[in-house]
Amino acid sequence: MRNMEKRVRVRFAPSPTGGLHMGGVRTALFNYLFAKKHGGDFILRIEDTDQTRFVEGAEEYIIKALKWCGIEPNEGVGFGDGPHAPYRQSERKELGIYKTYADKLIASGHAYYAFDTSEELDEMRRRLEAAKVVAPQYNAVTRQNMRNSLTLPEDEVKNLMEGGAKYVIRLNVPRNEEIRFNDIIRGWVTVNSAQVDDKVLLKSDGMPTYHLAHIVDDIEMEISHAVRGEEWLPSAPAHILIYRYLGLEDQMPKLAHLPLILNPDGNGKISKREARFPVFPLSWQDPREATPYIGYKESGYYPEAFVNILALLGWNPGTNEEFFTVDQLAHIFEFERVHKSGAKFDPEKAKWFNQHYLRLKPDAELAEAFKPILKEKGFERDQEFMIQFCKLVKEKVQFVQEFWDHGKYIFIAPQAYDEKVMAKKWNDKSRDIFDAVVAQFEAVKDWQVEEITTHFHNAEAQVGKVDMQLLRVLITGVAGGPQLFDMLALMGKEEVLKRLGTALNKL
After folding, report:
1. Which of 49-58, 164-173, 221-230 has the lowest mean pLDDT?
2. 498 carries an active-site annotation
3. 419-506: which CATH architecture?
4. 408-445 burial: b if 16+ Cβ within 10 Å, else e
5. Can you give the residue ranges of every domain in the chain?
6. What local confidence, expressed as pLDDT, does residue 267 receive?
């Protein structure tokens, strides 16, 4: 079956070696969008071949993170079995799948047994480093001086195998051969095999390495497109050889290597220890480390904002539009619009995206989210008050937790008044002016915006222009805030008059 005729089937295949960082989420997102656009399948596969790096709780974290982001696979670990289960490589290893493919490579002479001990491998690296070799590796040249089935007599190899000697299976990479492949994002890539090491395909414990396992699984699971980070680009030539040597090049998924997400300075990829902003979708505590990492969710970000900003890191929609739902992204997404170079992450723009999505939320939903924060501050209000409060303040905030900082003066009477405003605007006439305002406010029978506005203008008709910023400062203590008369209506007649009285008595 030719690639162009394949049903679109993509996979996100993380290792359970830690929390899923934002780079991994973007890889999952691009896979999801591509599958959704083409009516295909998005699979979660857990690549746990390196059991020494397994971290308790990492797999569960990956599943929860994908669910929070709203980019759920339709098949795979935690999302339901399909015809290609199981989806954990450790479980697939028990079925003997990887050994079958490794044996096929051995039989065709494209792989070999290597019996080198760790001490012998270390000695080889030291020898090459002493000879000023920049990147020591086990390859077509160095393997000639190592203990493997290409250098040892056949009977010795047989005796070692029958005697239970430990060995790995390595790929037999040719010495000087051009390897070409077409990457959807990067175009044609050509590498000489002299730059490719003899990858370990099967470890001494029988567990496959990534290099063999992901290829076997992609074939068995009929994956049409293999999408991964650019850190795997140097390994791609070896993977091309494996497909070729297995006689499966016509079934090989199309490759796409995504650019790195760079830190805001652009001088390196984002690290989980970045202190300026979160790097995990959900808070993560690595059991091997003392430091917990706060997530985007716990920092107050909406998943829509997180996904939206990730989508634009290294991908261009072809328009000036920046806000997209997942459905809209899927409709226009293509890998051909993914950039080759790394994308700098802008934490301030991420906040801006969150502000946009916060403003789209129903006021009742915002009120529910803010209630526990307000209660923690020692205040409670009824639902209608909360809804109106959020409606007033939401234009000023980027996160729900900021409602308090931007609106606490509505709950707490001022103890001091903005010094700059008072110094500039309070004068000998001010008391008479605001006595008139108080008198008019006392006469309001229906304390609503229209009535408040009418009586305010009545006061102006009596005493001339009333400085609204000064009025705001007398009531709240601060120089800025939401629409003044809407705020007064929310605070209530009694509270407003009480605060004005206090202010005028102090001044």
Report:
1. 49-58
2. no
3. Orthogonal Bundle (1.10)
4. ebbeeebeebbeebbeeebeeebeebbebbbebbeebe
5. 362-407, 419-506
6. 86
